[in-house]
Amino acid sequence: MGENFNNLAYNPVAGHQCRIYNDNTHGNIIIGNNVCIDGVLSCNRRGHIEIGDYTVIGHNSFITADASVRIGKHCFIAREVLIQDNNSHPIDPALRREQAIQHQDRPTDTYESENGPIEIGDDVWIGTRVIVLKNVIIGNGSIIAAGSVVTKSVPPLSIVGGNPAKVIKQIK
Fold it and tell me: Can you give the pLDDT at residue 9?
């Protein structure tokens, strides 16, 4: 954890919904300086989450990593954003059935599902209720419109929106 974690005038302690789960024995959650989190970070067995300095993660947002989620510096991630680098469950229905049965005794992990890294550059603004899925790079300075589903990489200095998200315009 970096300096001044969640140390903002309106929020002098961790946000009301801030929860951090690290099931990775290697301690692979890195939080930079002056970061504010009012959501959930969940790092599974092989996952890695890194958040750069001066980044804000809004209320009820959820970031989960089986592979890697890297968020740059000076980013705004709005309320109720989902950033997920995995499919959560196997594609094969027989394996999903097995996982559902196992879940009755213990929470199941997502390690059996496909996963891929997510990288969010510096100075990115992600709007409310955006979903960012595996194998995506969001370039520096980009804006993701509220309610978008990001399934493909976003060039730097782009505004994208929709489901699936598409480039609306370039930022000069």
Answer: 42
Give the domain ranges of the chain.
19-140
The phi-psi region of residue 110 (left if phi > 0; otherwise alpha if psi is between -120 and 50; otherwise beta) is alpha
* Cβ-contact 24, 31 below 8 angstroms: no
Q: Which residues pair with 36 in a beta bridge?
A: 56
- What are the C-alpha distances in Å from 121 to residues 22, 43, 153? 23, 20, 11
Active site residues: 89
Is the pTM here over 0.90, yes or no?
Answer: no
The C-alpha angle with vertex 88 and arms to 86 and 91, in degrees rounded to 5, equals: 95
- Class of domain 19-140 as given by CATH: mainly beta
